[in-house]
Amino acid sequence: MKKHTLIYSALAVLIGCSGCSYNTQSTPDSWLKTHGLSTPTDLGEMTLCQNFGCTKSKSIQLSTDELKPVQLLFTPLPTNAAAERERIAQAIGLLEKITGPRIGTENDLAKNAFGFSFESNQLDCVAESNNTSTYLLLLQSLELLKYHRVGGNMHRGLFTLHAPHNSAAVIENDTDHAYAVDSWFRPNGEAAWIIESEHWLSGATP
User: Fold this and answer.
1) Which of 75, 157, 185, 197 is the most exposed place for a label (fewest CB within 10 A)?
2) 115 three-class SS
3) Mean pLDDT of 171-198
4) 13 or 69, higher pLDDT
5) What angle do CA 154, 193, 140 make, to 5 degrees?
6) pLDDT digits (tens, 9 = 90+) for 100-128
7) C-alpha 204, offset from chain centre
8) 71 Cβ partners below 8 Å, 6+ apart?
């Protein structure tokens, strides 16, 4: 078999297996550290990205009053995993509203809307996924997640013939099934888009 045929065959296998590459035992900690971000605490301390590529970040601490609406969103706690994912999606938007004025991202628009958000820093999918993972870890540290744990950031595009993209993730505890928690497609303050990992990895969009 010719060399180029072997290469094409290998690429075909990798493309066909694009949805099976996610490690459900992963965590976002190492990815966050790569961008100089620390794991948030249950006291509301966190470091968040402020711009494209997360080359600039800021450490803040949320007050008890700022955390209260987040905790109320999970009161009473959801009774199943699907309901909890709905609360998670809403919580990401709520936390963006709370932190946006503190870190200068309150006017962040959907996707990479360069040239339209001069009053605030525009976030790309790297920064969005980092911030969303941080928010998810905060929810976890506050013991608001009963049916899920926070997974490592998802990445797609290398072998799927789609543009490179990143997302935060949660793993359903009972099934070990992964879900992308993607806040990049929507502007600051709106609920995150949550979808099964295999669909996200294959290039799905809202």
Assistant:
1) 75
2) coil
3) 97
4) 69
5) 65
6) 999 999 999 998 876 554 445 899 999 99
7) 15
8) 142, 144
The rounded distance, in Å, linking the Cα atoms of 15 and 17 is: 5
CB crowding 129-149: b at 16 or more within 10 Å, else e: bbbbbbbbbbbbbbebbebbb
The H-assigned helical ranges of 48-152 are 64-73, 81-103, 125-141
Q: Are strands 45-49 and 148-156 parallel, antiparallel or unpaired?
A: unpaired
* Distance (Å, whole) CA 50 – CA 104: 7
- Stated pTM of the model: 0.87
- Using alpha carbons, list the distances in angstroms from residue 152 to 5, 122, 134, 169: 34, 23, 11, 6
Measured in whole angstroms, the distance separating CA 41 from the mean position of its chain's CA atoms is 18
DSSP β-bridge partners for residue 47 = 59
- The whole-angstrom separation of Cα 5 and Cα 112 is 37
Classify burial at 159, counting beta carbons within 10 Å of its beta carbon; exposed 0-12, middle 13-18, buried 19 or more: middle
Strand partners, 48: 58
